[in-house]
Design a protein that fits this description.
By secondary structure, the protein is an alpha/beta fold. The chain has two domains: 6-199, 2-enoyl-CoA Hydratase, Chain A, domain 1, CATH 3.90.226; 203-249, Lyase 2-enoyl-coa Hydratase, Chain  A, domain 2 (Orthogonal Bundle), CATH 1.10.12.10. It is 51% helix and 16% strand. The chain contains eleven helices and ten strands. It has helices at residues 30-44, 67-72, 76-95, 111-118, 142-151, 154-163, 169-175, 187-199, 203-216, 221-236, 239-249, and strands at 6-11, 14-19, 51-56, 60-62, 100-104, 107-109, 121-125, 129-131, 167-168, 180-182. Strand 1 and strand 2 form a beta hairpin. Helix 1 packs parallel to helix 3. The two termini are 38 Å apart.
Length: 257
């Protein structure tokens, strides 16, 4: 175990980032936010990486913000800057070209639940639990609400935000917060399988597809179709895509460059 609060390992075009503050339940300290942002920025510019996995060491996936650290300096400027830094990191996950998968082995609360909601995909152990529990301290989880309300239904999101209650992994899957629940000992394998499957796809198609998916979400229907038309045209005319189409017609494997 190193002293770094974010560990990175790369294998077969998959970069795994591990939150590494186990004694603090991987709370999002300034240091962790800074390192995680830096790693994501580097990965976003790395054409060798096709998929990102975010996981964690210890008994929790992420316990939210580091409240003890926040109380050492609670000036308006410091607190606003912290939440802005966190929000920028969450937006980076969505804007980077590679799909990002959360591998949630245990509790994810407040900004930790926000991190799960911000990822493109999420798989969880049956032991995992999720909450936006700031309301129990008198603090409505406003910034986690942004990601949560875009990942699940309005009434489910608001119920979680107003009660602070935990939901189990099965409920999180039913809400749409996560894609799949597996037994704890199967989580790493399940994440690896979906990451490997995505990494085997043509990178340009994945990159263009992710960008278009988020851009069109909140657009009027006609605008969304216009954006999709442009994206799929550019995608189709890419030389590797044309090779993929020819390979399908000719019943052979594509020779992507």
């Amino acid at each position: 175990m190193t002293d770094s609060v974010v560990l990175r390992s790369d294998h077969l075009h998959i970069a795994t980032l591990t939150l590494n503050r186990p004694a603090q339940f991987n709370a999002l300290s300034n240091e962790l936010l800074t390192q995680l942002t830096q790693e994501l920025q580097q990965i976003a510019a790395d054409n060798e990486v096709r998929v990102v996995v975010i996981k964690a060491n210890g008994r929790a996936f992420c316990g939210g913000h580091d409240l003890k650290e926040m109380r050492t300096d609670s000036s308006p400027e410091t607190i606003q800057a912290l939440f802005a830094r966190c929000g920028a990191m969450m937006q980076l996950i969505q804007s980077m070209p590679q799909p990002v998968i959360a591998s949630v082995h245990a509790v994810a609360t407040a900004a930790g639940c926000q991190l799960v909601a911000a990822c493109d995909l999420a798989l969880a152990s049956s032991n995992a639990k999720f909450a936006v529990s700031g309301i129990n301290l008198g603090l409505f989880c406003s910034t986690p609400a942004v990601a949560l309300s875009r990942a699940i239904g309005k009434k489910q999101a608001l119920a979680m935000l107003l009660t602070g209650d935990f939901i189990d992994a099965a409920t999180a899957e039913r809400y749409g917060l996560i894609n799949q629940v597996v037994e704890p000992e199967q989580l790493d394998q399940a994440v690896q399988e979906i990451a490997t499957k995505i990494a085997a796809k043509l990178p340009v198609a994945v990159r263009m597809g992710k960008e278009l998916f988020y851009k069109q979400l909140n657009q009027p229907l006609a605008t969304a179709y216009a954006m999709a038309n442009e994206a799929i045209t550019c995608n189709f005319l890419d030389q590797d895509t044309l090779e993929g189409v020819d390979a399908f017609i000719e019943k052979r494997k594509p020779n992507w460059q």
